Here is the input.
Amino acid sequence: MTGHRGTRMLLFKAWKESKTRFLLSAATIAMLCTTVVLFYVQVQRNPAPIPHDLRTASYSEHVYLFIYRGTAKGLFTILVLFIGLGGLLRERRRGTAPFTLALPATRTQLVVMQIVVGLLEVVAIAALPLLLIPTLSPVVSQSYPVSESLHFALLWLGGGVMVFGLAFLCSVLLPGEYTALVVAFLGLFGVPLVAQVPALEPYHVNFLATMWIRLVVFFGISMLLLWAALQVTKRQDF
Here is the structure.
């Protein structure tokens, strides 16, 4: 399958397969960002039942605690694991692989389009706080710098692309419906536990603690994971 029409068809197919996961993920992050902004008013009006750290935090600290350091960042990571589920093994389980492989397109083209759509979805979700936080802040008579939102959006994107690559590779390698998701989850969140082994502490293997500042390194890891997923798909015998 060649030409712009063929490319559009493959992109549409990849989008159709992933749009439900993407829309639910985007709606979840958007709802959380909105709630965090509006919750700031409640913190100011009802200080007594609020923990001291939240009660005394500035608006920027409030956003950082809930969005960029806390709940939203962890939720974003988990949602990207779902976004990363792809590959042809999932289609074989659903019985649609023969139809997909009968299309006038190579396996490389099919998988590359899935990767492209998935990465665009990760970009869109990572950009939601950038769009929503500065826009909604005036509703609670506050402001939040766009430059700061952009900084954190890039950090989210760097980590999100790597998580996507890990989930996609697991999807390509593991046939079970939820096996890939579980293995990717354990691989991602098991690293901090392994990093606590005294013999490994000098090597700083806990990438979860540093992924947000070593974007170039983790972008390289992401590309390696996706390249490996592509090579595995090309060699699968079905």
